[in-house]
Amino acid sequence: MSQPKPEPVRPEQVFDLAKQVIAADRFPYLATVQEDQPRLRPVSPVRTEGFTVFVANLKNYHKTAEIAANPKVELCYLSDHHDQVRITGVATVLDDRKTLQSIWDENPLLRNYLGSIDNPDLIVYRIDPVRVRFMREWALEYHEVDFQRPVDA
């Protein structure tokens, strides 16, 4: 069996290709660390702004303590064609009430499940990227994404 030949990626395509992968994957994987043990789980982002990702959480979930101890995280998105985007970032608890209210208003599942934006169990993490990489299936080569570029540029 011959090795598949991935479609080449031109540098000017990387940003848009990465955005397409993110838009297509509703359940990326979030990696954290518990002491010296990596932990990985699917998450459902409640908002994405460019390459900044917001993830809702409950205080009693294991990732709460993991992120409190080490806020360095990584998200991995995978398309149906197995292209991937990896967002290495830092998670912080969202404390901006206006943004939290907007996320709350846009997410009926949050409202139905938690009942109130003031539910003490609710945490929304803002994951700010420090590095974003894109890889085409079978290419085995990452392309750096200029995540600081304006989204509509």
From TrEMBL:
Transmembrane segments: none
Protein name in the entry: Pyridoxamine 5-phosphate oxidase
Domain Pyridoxamine 5'-phosphate oxidase N-terminal: 18-135
Pfam families from the UniProt entry: PNPOx_N
InterPro entries: Pyridox_Oxase_N (IPR011576), Split_barrel_FMN-bd (IPR012349), Stress-Dev_Protein (IPR052917)
Recorded superkingdom: Bacteria
